[in-house]
Q: What sequence folds into this?
């Protein structure tokens, strides 16, 4: 240090003085700063909390009476049959966010613990279900300030009717008309999941009165795929959902029609296709199904997320794998939603939003992530594609102590807090005005979904 020239020494001490002054300045103003710079602008937060939202993706349960047959149509691929797997921290019932939901919905004191807590919660949930009966799902939406919920279910039923609930049907099963035993043998998760798709396809065939699969792939598309979508549309569906990432990587390559027709014809009367043969058929059918969905004005949702399941293919759910399909010019009439934002690869999702027919939602992200982390994602997306980002919760039933109504409340509260943080930051940095911040909040929570689904 002794070799510093006088001028360097001068600069260095000037720097030290400036740094010291800055430190004093921060100390002097820290009290005022703490008051003025709360992470959210309170007026903006109140405005955001007043918006009645449209939930792009959820799994509400039928309000079945006690003793009635349990509701098993809440998902095409329920995960209770796969080997036990770890949940991200915020989804575990021990996270304090669930106590916040239980206090808001059922007035369960956060002071309670042990058996007293569990008994109080179960009693309160049972009482609410008895008291509200068939109105329980609508009550749940009101608690979460959700106006309309897109219900991802195999079938709808009493208590889940429009206008508050809209149907999103499942159609992975249509990609799997051949024997799935080869695919089901790939992982322990697949062993449980593939047979469920085979069962669902049998239900779809039964609904169409198709006893035997047609001999050719073109006939299968004409007499099974297209009529199933039409039946779903006629039954009130506004969209269809692919859970393909639970079954296979999302690399729906440019299809080889010749190969797909050959595989179908070879195995339709029996035999187990090789993995490569089945993939060629699935790649072809994915495009045929989504093209027809677009023709029938059905939005297409695709699960993209790092999890769930101990043998889940995280790399196989990377949003960029969908780019060849999204770049298929024959699919530009179909609107796609990258569901769960592709988390944690939300930058890849952002890259796909440049396509005119691709959207994303924050479902499950607003249950798994803290408001602060989600705010960072929203701020990044909203700076570029504000009309492509939708609110969603992925409300699902985690048993009586973590019911779908609690998940909806957690998702809605977290999303609103995250939006408030992101939009406050953009406002304070001079990127947007207050009225633009309010408009962006309306777009994410409601208007973007209303436009996409054509809801009035
Ligand atoms: Zn879901």
A:
């Amino acid at each position: 240090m002794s070799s510093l020239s006088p001028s360097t020494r001068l600069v260095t001490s000037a720097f030290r003085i400036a740094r010291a002054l800055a430190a004093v300045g921060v100390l002097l103003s820290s009290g005022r700063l703490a008051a003025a710079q709360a992470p959210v602008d309170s007026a903006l937060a109140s405005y955001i909390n007043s918006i009645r939202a449209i939930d792009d993706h959820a799994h509400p349960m039928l309000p079945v009476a006690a003793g009635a047959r349990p509701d098993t149509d809440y998902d095409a691929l329920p995960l209770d049959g796969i080997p036990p797997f770890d949940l991200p921290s915020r989804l575990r019932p021990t996270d304090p966010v669930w106590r916040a939901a239980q206090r808001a919905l059922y007035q369960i004191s956060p002071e309670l613990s042990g058996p007293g807590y569990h008994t109080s919660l179960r009693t309160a949930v049972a009482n609410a279900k008895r008291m509200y009966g068939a109105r329980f799902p609508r009550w749940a939406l009101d608690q979460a300030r959700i106006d309309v919920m897109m219900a991802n279910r195999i079938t709808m039923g009493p208590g889940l009717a429009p206008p508050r609930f809209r149907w999103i049907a499942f159609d992975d099963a249509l990609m799997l008309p051949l024997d799935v035993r080869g695919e089901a043998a790939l992982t322990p998760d697949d062993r449980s999941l593939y047979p469920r798709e085979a069962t669902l396809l049998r239900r779809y065939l039964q609904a169409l009165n198709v006893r035997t699969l047609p001999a050719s792939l073109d006939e299968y598309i004409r007499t099974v795929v297209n009529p199933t979508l039409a039946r779903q549309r006629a039954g009130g569906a506004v969209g269809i959902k692919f859970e393909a990432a639970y079954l296979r990587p999302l690399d729906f390559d440019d299809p080889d029609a010749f190969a797909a027709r050959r595989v179908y014809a070879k195995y339709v009367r029996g035999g187990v296709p090789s993995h490569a043969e089945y993939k060629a058929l699935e790649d072809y059918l994915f495009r045929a199904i989504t093209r027809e969905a677009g023709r029938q004005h059905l939005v297409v949702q695709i699960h993209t997320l790092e999890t769930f399941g101990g043998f889940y293919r995280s790399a196989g759910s990377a949003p960029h794998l969908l780019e060849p399909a999204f770049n298929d010019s024959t699919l530009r009439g179909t609107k796609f939603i990258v569901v769960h934002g592709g988390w944690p690869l939300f930058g890849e999702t952002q890259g796909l939003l440049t396509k005119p027919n691709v959207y994303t939602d924050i479902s499950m992200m607003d249950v798994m992530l803290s408001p602060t982390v989600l705010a960072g994602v929203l701020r990044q997306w909203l700076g570029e594609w504000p009309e492509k980002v939708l609110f969603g919760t992925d409300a699902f039933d985690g048993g009586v102590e973590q019911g779908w109504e609690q998940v909806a409340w957690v998702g809605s509260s977290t999303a609103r807090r995250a939006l408030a943080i992101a939009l406050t930051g953009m406002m304070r940095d001079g990127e947007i005005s207050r009225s633009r911040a309010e408009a962006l909040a309306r777009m994410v929570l409601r208007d973007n979904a209303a436009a996409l689904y054509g809801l009035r």
Summary: The chain has 16 helices and eight strands.
